[in-house]
Amino acid sequence: MPLLPEEPQIHESAQGPRATSASGRTAPTPRPVPGPRPAAHPRPGPFRPTPPVQRTPHDVAAKPGPSGPAAHTAAAPAPASPQIQLIPASAEGALDAAEEAVDLLLDSGRAPGEVLVVTTGEQHPWATHELTFGEASYWAQHDAGDDVFYADAAAVGRATTRPVVVVAVNGGPDSAAATVLPLALGRAGALLIVCGDPQQINSVLGAGV
Q1: Contact 146, 171 (CB under 8 A)
Q2: pLDDT tier at 131 (50, 70, 90 boundaries)?
Q3: I need a surface site. Which of 1, 44, 51, 92 has the fewest CB within 10 A?
Q4: Among 168, 157, 6, 7, which Cα is nearest to 90's?
């Protein structure tokens, strides 16, 4: 009979392993193991910030970009004005001087289509001849741009820009040079050659010619 009260103690001791099983459940409580996982998160963390750091310099470099175009636009408005060369000649000899200038230009490598010759007085013989076939044929040769083109004071306004313009101040009214020379300067892309009286030419284009 005294053993009976001890049996419940045995049962309680039997419950002990359950507690141990519970303790076995608590054994996972050293779940600091998941703790390292947050520690693993910081590892990728530093890699994420670095790409933004590399991008920001590009963004900063892109900011000066607008200033770059500004520099280009500043350089763009510096178009070189055509050079002006003066060949002293009388009104009677201006056309011959212009012909010699054209020969020198072609000999130096200029293409014929790069040269426009303008007269203030009598037309060049080539222009007189070509106009006998009609103005349409005459201006068609101008538009083709494959040969030296000759125009007079009335036609220079219709001519387009060519790298070199040669002006023969070979007479005409007193106002001819004052009218033709500014137009010829506007048609010259790189070089304007003027054959005529230096005093008259300087009075129109300036003393710096």
Answers
A1: no
A2: very high
A3: 1
A4: 168
Token readout for 58 is 């590009």
Q: Cα-flanking dihedrals φ and ψ of residue 191, to 5°?
A: -145, 135
| Token pair of 174 as six digits | 């007193």
Residue 72 vs residues 59, 60, 69, 76, 80: alpha-carbon distances, Å: 21, 20, 5, 6, 16
Question: How much is the pTM?
Answer: 0.61
Q: List, for residues 33-71, the tens digit of each pLDDT value.
A: 444 444 444 444 444 444 444 444 444 444 444 455 444
The Cα–Cα gap between 74 and 68 comes to 10
What is the rounded distance in angstroms from the CA atom of residue 94 to the CA atom of residue 89?
Answer: 5
Quick one: CA dihedral 88, 173, 166, 204, positive or negative?
positive
Q: Which residues contact 175 (CB under 8 A, 6 or more apart)?
A: none
CA–CA gap between residue 195 and residue 204 (Å, rounded) = 13
- DSSP state for residue 131 in the 8-state scheme: G
Distances (CA, A) of 190 to 75, 98, 147: 18, 17, 18
For 141-185, the pLDDT digits (tens) are 999 999 999 999 999 989 999 999 999 999 998 788 999 999 999
